[in-house]
User: What shape does this take?
Amino acid sequence: MIIAIDGPAGSGKSTVARQVADRLGFQYLDTGAMYRAVAYRALEEGVSLDDEPALARIAGSEPIAFGESGPGTVSIAGRDVTHEIRTAQTDRAVSPVSAWPAVRRALTDQQRGYGRSHDIVMEGRDIGTVVFPDADLKVFLTARPEVRAHRRGLQNARRGVGETDEALLLASILERDDRDASRSAAPLAKAEDAVEVDTSDMTLDEVIACIVDLATGERP
Ligand code: DC
Assistant: This one.
């Protein structure tokens, strides 16, 4: 079974998707972390964010792994980059990197590979529209921009990495959403058959219960 959870930055996708996966005994895959890992490696190597072939080479040749250095960790080419991919610098680079079709092709291939072999909850921007258009359940999570900036600030403070000023976060989130939704390759979009859940005024437990009920058929 494949559950696709898409939505803009700070809508609660990561927290919700991880806990829904735990509840159902499914694997969990954070596809945003994959785009972030490629963006981080590009910055590290001094690769221009305009250089599509070089960026695609990183995406296609440097394997990304989850949980290799402990629960919740992200590695690329055998190196733990869990913290590095959450910095404000990576935040700025990831949208331009993820807009390149060749980068998306390389990462989409890997994502489809995971989905073929596991029951999985996969979260991102294009899971229900492009990666798994036949997903068993598609959820599009949204929340008001101020709520999203507030949540991302709390998350960054908890992780001890990334921006925590909510006004700066709001500006950066809005800019990223705009780029992600307006790019031509696999833009951020709600699939026609996705269930939209506005989480602004819901608790985390309510959102998780809602999605688990949808997955188990207890909610129409
Ligand atoms: O979910 P996130 O904020 O960690 O995602 C980081 C960026 O990666 C986001 O700005 C857009 C991009 N992304 C994407 O283009 N497609 C996905 N499936 C997941 C993320």
Observations:
- Residues 73 and 114 are 17 Å apart (CA to CA).
- The first helix runs from residue 13 to 24.
- The two ends are 18 Å apart (CA to CA).
